């Protein structure tokens, strides 16, 4: 056993162990001691423990040396302490006892993530010295609330980014001003929160700063394309949008004359113009022209304003006639129509007993009327209002006289109707027609006749009068003559005649009847 231990002690230790373990040189003297002549059992000798990888070795330190497989550590000399490791986490040197396993490190708390990048970054508008950006809020903002956004720009060909806003703002729209025409500007936008800044959202292509020309165009609202009507004293507040780039020149005139600034206030922005009158008067009515001009290009629109008020009363109301239960009135249109068309007149009556006014006609479009169904014995007064789109006139025209309805005696005289001579000789208005019938099937002959006195009807067959024969049935009703021949036979064929006779004369018609045998 001693022969085996000596060669193991003479084997040199690795370089790393020489640097770190101070007692390494002393281990070389171990073979000089006299080993025990008595053979000791193997269990008394402590075998080297299997080495485990260090839980967290230092980054700058090399790993601890490992013994070759199958070798044993030399025994520690008596009275000499085992060498302790020089650093925490280092491997135990040969001959030292195995160190207890290190405790696992506690996991660090997860770091708060910054917000994600803004979405849908786009250019909304470009002018000759500025441009406007829009974007959407990021999809994730983290646990902390969003502080705002920072917009940065960089000229094409340069690497210097410049912040447009020093402090974050929450708006998702930003206008970058004070740029030079022809520049190409790169843009990026970051979202900021208490946990940091997001990855920047940028445009794929730089923004070219140049003037975008747009012809002037007035967007006249639909309700202003017709006459705009307001009452006296109302406010007139009209906004008319327009478009055009660069900023167009806006001009207002009235009847091709400059506006009276004491009556009309005009305020114009980059996108619309506002026409305002605090209290409208009838003199503010008229045609207003709006002109939007850019250099030689222009667009025009006309605004018609009509300021109205109630009309005046009708003039010269007269009581023209009174007869029976009726009264006729006439009047003239009002001198002042309130700056609007007269739509009609309202006529009212009042009886002397009650003194109350009742409307008898509304929206009468003529300047005269007839009032009927008045009560006998009453005395009536009449008045008339004029009406336009603003309403009824403030006052009414009152008829000067009154109408007293009296009971009149009338005598009925029947109208004499001249007598007319109604005498007329017979005359056939519808003749007989030839007929063909089948043997055994009854048939009818028809004709019509008129005359006064009513003529006598005689039927003949082959110039022979048909008397009381049950085979024939003759009838006349309302001037229509008919002859029924019941179940005729070939013998019944021939010429039939209808003769009409009265005191003033006679007339006749005839026809042929053919009777065929059955097939």
As a whole number of angstroms, the C-alpha radius of gyration is: 63 Å
Ends apart, CA distance between termini: 156 Å
Would you identify the CATH architecture of the largest domain?
Sandwich
Count of alpha and pi helical runs: 2
Pick out the low-confidence regions: 1-96
Largest sheet: 6 strands, antiparallel
CATH superfamily of the largest domain: Immunoglobulins
Output the structural class: mainly beta
Helix percent band:
under 10%
Question: Can you tell me about this structure?
Answer:
With 519 residues, the protein is mainly β. It folds into four domains: 122-209, Immunoglobulins (Immunoglobulin-like); 214-308, Immunoglobulins (Immunoglobulin-like, Sandwich); 318-405, Immunoglobulins (Immunoglobulin-like, Sandwich); 424-516, Sandwich (Immunoglobulin-like). It is built from two helices and 36 strands. It has helices at 2-10, 15-20, and strands at residues 119-126, 131-136, 146-155, 162-163, 173-176, 184-193, 196-197, 201-202, 207-208, 214-218, 228-231, 236-245, 249-254, 257-258, 265-268, 272-277, 286-294, 297-308, 315-323, 326-332, 344-351, 357-364, 368-371, 379-388, 391-392, 397-398, 403-404, 424-430, 435-438, 443-452, 456-461, 464-465, 472-477, 480-485, 494-502, 505-516. The strands form eight sheets. Strands 3, 4, 6, 7, 8 and 9 form a six-stranded antiparallel beta sheet that branches. Strands 21, 22, 24, 25, 26 and 27 form a six-stranded antiparallel beta sheet that branches. The protein is elongated, with a radius of gyration of 63 Å. Residues 1-96 have low confidence and may be disordered.
